[in-house]
Specification:
single chain; about 180 residues; 2 domains; 5-stranded mixed β-sheet; elongated
């Protein structure tokens, strides 16, 4: 079995979460918290075990941490239960995993299998992580002026050239817009 607990903690910590490991009825669980989100992640041996025990683990974690959750205020709207395993899942098990994620009773949920590398783990946790890609607006392939010019030409063809011409006043552009049928 691929060890997921350490990489899980690293991914969450790199995203700004404070993490710690607790044992719930002998099951090692990674707890995590940041300013707006809190929760736990449990790693199971395989998909059948995950599917058989996820609700029980969620109940135990919520029961154990109930006093802290009462003090968490607004953060209690963003409690996540994360259920993971490194091994794969068949089509029926994948359908059941999706059903877990759609179950919004008590907590928000992430359920994923086939996490055999860090990139798969990161993909599974995307809803907990900051945006992973930063737009590149200033590159040779991306000409913002040309893009804006095409957009203006689509919306108001009569002023496409005048709107971005520094020699044309905004009042003149407005006048030209008013002259359109």
């Amino acid at each position: 079995m691929t060890e997921l607990t350490s990489p899980l903690q690293v991914v969450l910590q790199e995203a700004g979460y404070e993490t710690w490991v607790v044992s719930i009825s002998g099951i090692e669980t990674v707890c995590f918290e940041e300013d707006a989100v809190m929760g736990f992640a449990c790693v199971f041996e395989d998909a059948p075990t995950l599917l058989a025990h996820w609700r029980e683990v969620e109940t135990m974690w919520l029961t154990k941490h109930a006093p802290l959750l009462h003090k968490a205020g607004e953060k209690t709207w963003n409690i996540y239960s994360v259920f993971l395993c490194a091994s794969g899942a068949d089509a029926e098990q994948m359908r059941e995993l999706r059903a877990i994620e759609e179950d919004l009773e008590r907590t928000r949920k992430i359920a994923s299998c086939a996490l055999d590398n860090r990139s798969a783990l990161t993909a599974a946790l995307l809803s907990l992580l900051p945006l992973q890609a930063h737009p590149i607006l200033d590159s040779e392939e991306f000409d913002l002026t040309q893009r804006l010019r095409r957009r203006i030409a689509t919306i108001a063809p009569a002023v496409a050239e005048a709107a971005l011409d520094p020699g044309v006043s905004p009042n003149e552009v407005v006048r030209l817009l008013g002259a359109e049928p």
